[in-house]
Amino acid sequence: MSGSAGSDLCLVLPHLGAGGAQKVAVLAAEHFQQVGYRVELITLLPDQEVLHVLPLGVNHIDLGASLHRAITQQSRWSRVLHRWLARLCVSVAGSSMVGRITPRIDADWIQRWMLWCCRGIVGPRADLLMAHWRDHPPRRVLSFLSKTNLVACLALWSKEAHLVVSERNDLRRDALPAEWRALRPLLFQRADVVTANAQGTLDSLRAITSLKHLMLLPNPLPRVAVGPSKVGQNYGFLTIARAVQQKGLDLLIEAFAVVLDGSESMDSWSLTLVGDGPERVGLEALAERCGVRHRVRFLGHCHDVHAELAAAAVFVLPSRKEGMPNALLEAMAAGLAVIVNDASPGPLEFVTHGQNGLVVPHDDAAALARAMLRLQTDPQLRIRLGLAAQDRLKSQDWPVLEPIWKAVLAME
Q: Using an 8 Å Cβ cutoff, are 241 and 235 in contact?
C-alpha cells in the first residue's frame, strides 16, 4: 500500500492506560497491521502508565515527554494569560464563528484569531501533533475521546489527511469544561467523519451539533475462548471497571452486601472487582463497613481477563454513565449472564431484559441486589441468558465489522 513516508493509519489517544477506548485502539492497530497497513499509534499525555501491549509492527509515538517540556519551558504567566483570553473570546464569540471559518484555509484573520483561541484552550498538544505530522504525514487519522478529538482536529486543520474522530460517551451528560464544549462544533468541522460506538452516543452528537457526516463505528471484540457454558456451575459476581465514581462500584458493593444477607446459599460466592483507580481505597473501606471485605476480591488492573471471565457466573455493570463498554461485550461473548442498568442507552443496545440479560433502574442498589439474587439462585436462567448473550455478540466479530471500519476510514 504505497503512500507518503507516514502511516496508512494513525491512531491518537491520550494514553495507553486503563480504558475501553485504549483496548479498541490496540485491537484496531493489530487488525489493520496484520492485513497489511502501516499503523502508528500516538499518545499525548506525560507520566502515564502503559497497560496495553502493542503488537509487533505497530509504531508507538509517545509525545508525553515533549508535552511536559513544552509546558515547563513556556512562561507560566504567558500560558495562563493566553488561556484566559481564549476562554473569554470563545465564550463571547465562539458559537457565532461556527460556519464562518473553513478548514484547510488559513488566510482570513477571523480564522487565525479563532485558531489562536483554540490553541490557548487546547495547549501545546496540537502543536506537537502538527510538528510530528509535518515530518510524517499520515493518510488517515482516527482519534479517540473528546479532548483528543479536538486536539487532532486542530492539528490537522489545514492538512489533507482523512480524519475520523470517535466519541465514546453520551454527550448530553458531558463532563468537559465549558470552553472545550464550545470548541466542539467549531473544530469538528475539520473531521471527515464523526463516529460513536453506540446509537445513543450518536443521537447525542446529533442533538448538539449540525454535523452531516455522523456514523456508527461499533467496538470490535478481542478473541474470546468460547467453550461449553459453565455459568450454571460457576460461583461469583464479576465486574471489570476503573475505580472511579462513574462506574458505580459503590452501588455494587452495597448490593452485594444485601445479597449476602438475603441468601442462604452464598457460602461459595464472592464479588471480584478487576480494575484500579483513585477510588479503590475508598471502595475497600466501604466493603469493610458493609461487612463484606472478606468476600470482595480487588484484583487491580489485569492484562488478560479471560481467566476471570471463565471463572465467573454473573457479570454486573453498575455504571452511572457509559458509552459502549468493552468489558460488557467481552462478558457477553464469554457466555456470562449479565446485569446492566438503564443509566445510558449504549448497554441497552445489546442487553434486552429477560432475553439476554437483566436490566435494573440506575442508582438503585436494592433493585441491583434483587437481580443479583435472582441469578445467584437460578442456574438455568444464568445458562439461558448467557447463551443468548453469546449469540447476540456474533455481530461484533472482525469479519462482520471490517467493512464498516474500512468504509469509515476510507480504506476501500
A: no
For residue 293, the one-letter residue type is R
**Residue-by-residue DSSP string for 348-391:** HTT--BTTTBEEE-TT-HHHHHHHHHHHHT-HHHHHHHHHHHHH
CA within 13 Å, CB half, 209: 23
Q: With beta carbons less than 8 A apart as the criterion, state whether 21 and 145 touch.
A: yes
Helix, strand or coil, per DSSP, at residue 272: strand
Closest CA to 326 of 197, 174, 162: 197
pTM attached to this predicted model:
0.83
pLDDT recorded at residue 1: 37
Buried-exposed string 8-22: b where 16+ CB fall within 10 A, e elsewhere: bbbbbbbbbbbbbbb
> DSSP states of 311-346 as a string?
H-SEEE---SS-S--HHHHHHHHTT-EEEEESSSHH
- pLDDT, tens digit, for every residue of 143-154? 999 999 999 999
| Cα-based distances in Å from 219 to 23, 359, 407 | 10, 21, 15
